[in-house]
Every structure is written in structure tokens, then in C-alpha cells.
Design a protein that fits this description.
With about 240 residues, the chain is an alpha+beta fold. The chain is elongated, with a radius of gyration of 23 Å. The termini are far apart.
Length: about 240
Amino acid sequence: MSTTRAPTPATKALTALDHRIEAATGLSVDQLWEHRDRGLLDAPHARLVDAHRNLAQCETSVTFYRVLLHRLSSGEFPVDAALFARIDRTVDQLEEAAATRDEGERSALAALEPIESAARTQGPAEQREMTPPDVAALLAIAQGAKLHEHLLTQRLSVVTATGTRVAYSHFQRLEEAGLVMRDTSHPVHAGQPVTLTDAGRTALSGSRRANPPAAPARRTGAWPPTAAARGTTGATRRH
């Protein structure tokens, strides 16, 4: 009988560190994975996402073998020597998967702890340095955005005119920093317009001046194409 192997997951599994990662970064794990794929993270955050991806894969393997063990003991199969052998093999595989998961969790913790430490030593959100994800979110919101509440799940998210979604936890951090504001005269289920504040526009322009040759600004699809020209009158930069 061939050995059963866990398939490669199409979606990420929940891990024990998701809440801590989101609290330390101010971003959802979905948003972090997206920013990693778009090359918007600094080295520490990129290492964290890579470690979290590995941990999620390990967690998927644990779940796979746990579900398989439950199926084998559910009465679906005849109780014979072949079933006992398969249960023994699955227990061994589950134990190995759990050990690999534990090692992946230790690696993710090692990547997370410096970020948690930095978050504790930083001042209020408005005093923190703008991160590449912050810049990307502000650029997208500058093109037009609305805060929506899903009618069934009640989950909140910001949808921009360019199709980019900003996680609600990220939006809250920007809002608390005074960089964005919402128009509460509109019901949230219909969409509340979200705009940059004067402080947000100043922070965005300051970030762009501090990093004029930033590579992500030239990546197709990574930055709204008209945002670079905002604040200038007719002048076009060519690199």
C-alpha cells in the first residue's frame, strides 16, 4: 500500500501565531502575504512572512494526518491487520508532521520577536516611520476608496478605485495616525468614502521625496500610475 502524503494547500491554514503577527504588524496575514508577493516588505517583515508561510504549510500537514486518522477510526474500513498497519503508519506521520510544525513555529517566533520588540519601543502610530505597505495603501486610497461592510459576514474592508483592498486593521492604524478619514454621513453597508487627510498627503509626499528612485513605484500594477504626477503641474519625470 502506498504511503499517503499531504497535498500542497491552495490556501493558507490558520496558525497559533496569526493573532500575534497581526498585532505586531498592524496588518492581516492576508495583507502581509500580498505585500510579500509584491515586494513591498522590508527584510525583517519578509523573513517573518516566509517563516509564516512555512508554518502554515506545516499546520496543513498536521491537519491532513489528523483528519485521516479520524477517518481510519470512524468505522468506514473493516477492522483487520491492514487497517492496524495503516493506523500505525498514519500515527507516525502525524507525529512527524507535528514535530516539523513545532520547528516551523520556533522559526516563525524567531522572526516575529524582533518585530514585536520594535513595535513596543516605537511611539504612537503617528510618530512611526512610514512603511512600504503604508505608502502603498495611501497611494491606493488617494485614487478613491470606500469602506464597506459585508452584509452577511459584517467584515469591514477598504476597496479602492484601482481594485486594491486595504485590510480594516491596516486602515484603522492609518486612521488612528490621522492619515486618512472616512465620511460617516454615508452608511457603511453602502460604502463610506475614505480620503487622505492633510497629514496623510504630507506624509505621502514626504515619503516619496525621501525615496524618489524606489523600485516598487516602477512596478506595473504595484502603484497607481497617476499618483506620481500628483502635486506637480504638467511636469513629468522620466528615469
